[in-house]
Amino acid sequence: MEKGKANIDYNNPVISITGLEKSFDDYEVLRGIDLDLYQGENLVVLGRSGTGKSVLIKIISGLLTPDKGEVTVLGHEVNNITDKELQELRIRMGFSFQNSALYDSMTVRKNLEFPLVRNRKGITRAEINRSVETVLDAVGLSQTINQMPAELSGGQRKRIGIARTLILNPEIMLYDEPTAGLDPITCIEINDLINEVQQRFHTSSIIITHDLTCAKSTGDRIAMLLDGQFQRVGSFEEVFNTNDGRVKPFFEYNFIQ
Questions:
Q1: HSE-CB of 123 using CA atoms within 13 angstroms
Q2: Diameter of the chain by CA atoms?
Q3: Residue 256: is its pLDDT beyond 60?
């Protein structure tokens, strides 16, 4: 599926990152980065393994504390709010983990019900059933409702993981390597699903990947993380229209070899 034109509000950043720095011992992972995610946008953060992409997501969600800088999410400065406020903010963000993070002992239905029962006090059985059916339909897996995760393919588990994230109607989606470990056809299906989620649920998303096909298929804008900083930001063509020796091999490995 071709990437459709997104309805992006460039006057409304839902995430703002300013002067962000993070080191582990003497290793500088993030070296003063600045970036905005706008309402309705799919923003791809692209880079090689170990460049700090997942560290960035953990800082955005409050799982890691930066050494310097500010991260504002939906109007809240992440490292300057109470634990209760942080928990409420996390409910407004959806996390799609690389390993899908499903509970192996629960059916698909129970996996999807779990976040609703945990976070929506007083929700009725009818509301739960309706929400489960809606998100399963959105990811095209209504028939798996009574299956166990072990009975699903890798791509199906990835889809159910996304469905479980969507069930709380998040305003922001954070995808961590959404196509990792999947075959090429399933990668295309996941890329299409990310675009469908953007359109159907009106989400703003950060997509962490080193997969250029995923980046080109899903990103309204690409931010290339090199040497701890965003060195190139723009459309896919703008980012890769360069003779930068750090960027060209990345492109050639994905599309030429």
A1: 19
A2: 58
A3: no
